[in-house]
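One-letter codes give the sequence; the fold follows as tokens. An example follows:
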Amino acid sequence: MKQRGNSHLVIRVMHCLSRRGQPFGLFLTILFFLALSAAAGAESAADRLERGILKGQAGDYAGAIEEFNEALRLKPSFSAAFYNRGVARGFLGDAQGAIDDYTKAIQLDPKAIGAYNNRGYTRAAKGDNAGAIADLTRAISLNPELAELYNNRGTVRTSMKDYANAIADFTRAISLNPRLAGVYNNRGLAKASSGDLYGAVDDFTQAVTLDQRYDTAWYNRGNAKVSMKDARGAVEDYTKAVVLNPRLLAAWNNRAFARITLGDYTGAIDDISNVIKQSPGNASAYYNRGLVKKMAGDSQGAIVDLRKAASLGDELAGELLKELEP
């Protein structure tokens, strides 16, 4: 995402909605591989289910699917096998296959909360927010005391920009379980998006109080502080984030932006250089470093970086080069 400022300033300020790579914040999948007891006479299917679960837990999702397939061959109405195969397919990126399996599990067991939750998550990942909300609402009706379900519906509502209802969901989750740091983080994101920056900072602060190693919450609080014109406080938060997770490139990038605001061009160049070191094909990083070098008076260094950015396809680099080259 580009954010333009003065002097062609391009900083891609990325507001992560994720702690560990999920698309809508800390979307808790409630149940991963789920073992259920099989009916009498289906011991062989149950054995294959157990082997599949063990393979899935070990990361062998293709092998897990083979075991679940065999379980279903032996017992075609085995709801747990459909559910677990859906989980494995999801990990392999087969979203539609996962949805189909969760749907079959629900048909066989209409009270399968995990299947509703996971189908909702998968539908959200595919952009079917209405379907996701319907699934999560059904899961909540089956267990209205499970905080994670409200969190998950709130994350989908955040992605729909329905911030008021998202905040209500996160608040309900917190009332049920006030120890879930991820829910505070997600409510903070919804508050920030709705313009309540002070409320967002309060929530991110609560998240890092509960989990001091929550790198994304530190990062998100830094973003909120940038929006509040507190560049110094943002630098402190981004620093905490990169210490905890040196591969969080957005935090290095955004700390550079905050340092530019403070006039710390040397520090900004160092941060962007770290981005380039970890992502050498990042055209925007070369552009940004070239821009900061220009601002710092290093025209020759700026030209080198901007030429590199242009060679990697950054169109703005060519515009700025015209100002620097005769």
